[in-house]
Design goal:
Layout: H1 13-32, H2 40-47, H3 51-58, E1 64-66, E2 78-80, H4 81-87, H5 90-101
Antiparallel strand pairs: 1-2
């Protein structure tokens, strides 16, 4: 398995073990979805892991991005960088970039 962690800081052994087991499943869940953006709750149902743990793993995957806005229920939204670039126009990406820098 490729080392998927953004940074090399020491992390809790349990989280690392879970990440080793679930990172690929979580990434595939994001990649194969018909949706661009996914919630940790939706991903957790698909892969069988608690949403809080899914968030920890998602936040450490370098090829995953988090939306600057939540969904209507207030949940975080995640997408793969590739899927976001594929399914979002250049204009939308520029506007998002400007919005995130202010």
């Amino acid at each position: 398995m490729v080392d998927l962690w953004k940074n090399k800081r020491l992390i809790d052994k349990e989280v690392k073990k879970l990440a080793d087991e679930y990172a690929d499943k979580i990434y595939r869940s994001l990649s194969n979805s018909k949706f661009t953006w996914r919630t940790p709750t939706g991903i957790s149902k698909e892969v069988g892991l608690e949403p809080e743990k899914v968030v920890v793993i998602l936040d450490n995957l370098p090829s995953v991005i988090r939306s600057s806005t939540a969904n209507t229920s207030g949940e975080l939204l995640y997408a793969t960088r590739d899927k976001y670039q594929e399914q979002t126009s250049i204009g939308q990406r520029i506007l998002s970039s400007i919005k995130n820098s202010t």
